């Protein structure tokens, strides 16, 4: 294992091969409870971003493959939707147990396919287990308006029903966890699902299917691998799909919502983000710098809630930047299999590497100063240097658009009103954080920030009990918590005339 000092952070390469062939999932779509060959022989190669080697391949799904999966899901949902919450809870608990028992193989696959360090993959698996366990319980505690006589001589009963078949489209940054965030509430509410994983990172989702096959009712979970424009598009348009949920970029969300509108399908969108981190003069600057190091660079910054845009009070901007640069300089970059201390892996793919590299070059050309990093590492592998741009002027393009890599910008502000206005200036509205020891600011500022989650003196901490989702360009609909169960079910009012 080579270890060199470059630009102050440590780099560990090369990577030994990680995945034994026997651990790869079967090649095929998972439809009706088993793996089946697709209707086309075309395959998509799946690449390890740390080595650029092909790990395996998956079928490029077709419209016909989606139609077969939807037919299986429609059939399976009839009996699944009629089960009791307790029966569904038992199935979700079983999935949690299966994931837990296979955490090693799932973490290795996830890490090899995405390039994420093992510590991040392990965290993803633990959270996947907890999501299934939470929804196993939450599905048994649904509430609604009390039955009652709200009109003279009539009794109203509010039923909560499954919506039917749900189409799900997931991204590459947390493949298994994002699948769990959807599958768990969708099944808990009595629906069946047809899911398309990202064509770049389908392995862990297909492995989950292999592991649960025969352990859960056939056809309630179906996985069709393939591209967005074929498989994703068909999920958005299929007449037998009642709701389509996308976690991905704004462009993909818009395309799906537009297509779904033709059949007036319900849409659930978890899209991009550009989370501001507002650091007030009275904040614990050391804690804020550590918070940004952790939450800005976790998963290589490829996180929709990443702490990527710091707004710090001008009186402490220099001190804060010094602390942050010091923290980021201590990060260990490398191939996930190169050591347990690796904290930042490669970005997911060559096109994404080129996007991030170009964003760095544009920022530098615009005169921004990289206080640490600012470039890319030599291949093989798609490695970007952990980067902090300091002294970034208000309105710089890099502060508005998602880069989705290990890149943090630092701007300064003078007044609270200015901080709030500038934090809200982005087209996104997913997450933000506020760093202060002032009780008034810690309540007042979050209320004024236009983001679905606002942390105070923290960032990127999740709980299955609390909702996650955005405002504005970050989409609508909620993952996690009882609110996800609301989104994946429908209410029906039954009114009985007993006064006649
Ligand atoms: P992406 O939009 O490129 O792809 C997401 C999924 O959409 C993939 O499965 C892709 O095949 C599919 N897709 C693409 N075009 C489509 C189309 N026209 N019709 C149907 N499906 C289509 O996103 P990505 O690059 O995989 O993931 C990164 C993005 O996801 C970032 O913007 C990130 O912020 C966002 N994200 C958001 C959350 C959240 O909770 N809000 C979580 C994770 C990732």
Automatic annotation (TrEMBL):
KW Oxidoreductase (keyword) present: yes
UniProt keyword list: Oxidoreductase
List of catalytic residues: 270
Pfam families the record matches: Aldedh
The Aldehyde dehydrogenase domain, residue ranges: 35-494
Gene3D superfamilies, per the entry: Aldehyde Dehydrogenase, Chain A, domain 1, Aldehyde Dehydrogenase, Chain A, domain 2
InterPro entries documented for this protein: Ald_DH/histidinol_DH, Ald_DH_C, Ald_DH_CS_GLU, Ald_DH_N, Aldehyde_DH_dom
UniProt keyword annotation of Hydrolase present: no
Family of the protein in this entry: Belongs to the aldehyde dehydrogenase family.
Name of the featured protein: Aldehyde dehydrogenase family protein
């Amino acid at each position: 294992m080579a270890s060199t000092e470059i630009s102050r952070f440590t780099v560990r390469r090369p990577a030994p091969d990680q995945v034994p062939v026997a651990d790869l999932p079967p090649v095929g779509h998972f439809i009706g409870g088993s793996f089946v060959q697709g209707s086309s022989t075309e395959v998509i190669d799946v690449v390890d971003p740390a080595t650029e080697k092909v790990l395996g391949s998956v079928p490029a799904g077709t419209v016909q493959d989606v139609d077969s999966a939807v037919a299986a899901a429609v059939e399976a949902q009839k009996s699944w939707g009629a089960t009791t919450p307790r029966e569904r809870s038992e199935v979700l608990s079983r999935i949690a147990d299966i994931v837990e028992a296979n955490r090693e193989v799932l973490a290795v696959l996830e890490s090899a396919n995405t390039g994420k360090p093992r510590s991040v993959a392990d965290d993803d698996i633990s959270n996947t287990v907890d999501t299934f366990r939470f929804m196993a319980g939450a599905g048994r505690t649904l509430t609604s308006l009390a039955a009652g006589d709200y009109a003279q001589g009539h009794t109203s009963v509010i039923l909560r029903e499954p919506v039917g078949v749900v189409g799900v489209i997931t991204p590459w940054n947390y493949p298994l966890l994002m699948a769990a965030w959807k599958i768990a509430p969708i099944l808990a509410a009595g629906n069946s699902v047809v899911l398309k994983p990202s064509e770049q990172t389908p392995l862990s989702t297909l492995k989950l299917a292999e592991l649960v096959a025969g352990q859960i009712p056939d056809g309630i979970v179906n996985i069709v691998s393939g591209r967005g424009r074929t498989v994703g598009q068909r999920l958005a348009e299929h007449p037998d799909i009642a709701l389509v949920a996308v976690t991905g970029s704004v462009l993909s969300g818009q395309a799906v919502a537009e297509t779904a509108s033709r059949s007036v399908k319900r849409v659930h969108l978890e899209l991009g983000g550009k989370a501001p981190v507002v650091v007030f003069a009275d904040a614990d600057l050391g804690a804020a710098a550590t918070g940004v190091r952790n939450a800005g660079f976790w998963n290589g910054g490829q996180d929709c809630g990443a702490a990527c845009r710091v707004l710090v009070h001008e009186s402490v901007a220099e001190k804060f930047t010094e602390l942050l640069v010091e923290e980021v300089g201590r990060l260990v970059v490398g191939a996930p299999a190169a050591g347990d201390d690796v904290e930042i892996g490669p970005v997911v793919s060559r096109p994404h590497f080129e996007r991030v590299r170009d964003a760095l070059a544009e920022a530098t050309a615009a005169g921004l100063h990289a206080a640490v990093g600012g470039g890319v590492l030599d291949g093989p592998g798609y490695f970007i240097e952990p980067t902090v741009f300091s002294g970034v002027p208000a309105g710089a393009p890099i502060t508005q658009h998602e880069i989705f890599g290990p890149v943090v910008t630092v701007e300064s502000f003078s007044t609270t009103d200015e901080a709030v206005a500038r934090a809200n200036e982005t087209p996104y509205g997913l997450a933000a954080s506020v760093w202060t020891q002032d009780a008034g600011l810690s309540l007042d500022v979050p209320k004024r920030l236009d983001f679905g989650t606002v942390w105070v003196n923290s960032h990127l901490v999740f709980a299955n009990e609390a909702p996650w989702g955005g405002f504005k360009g970050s989409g609508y609909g909620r993952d996690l918590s009882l609110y996800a169960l609301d989104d994946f079910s429908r209410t029906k009012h039954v009114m009985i005339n007993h006064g006649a």
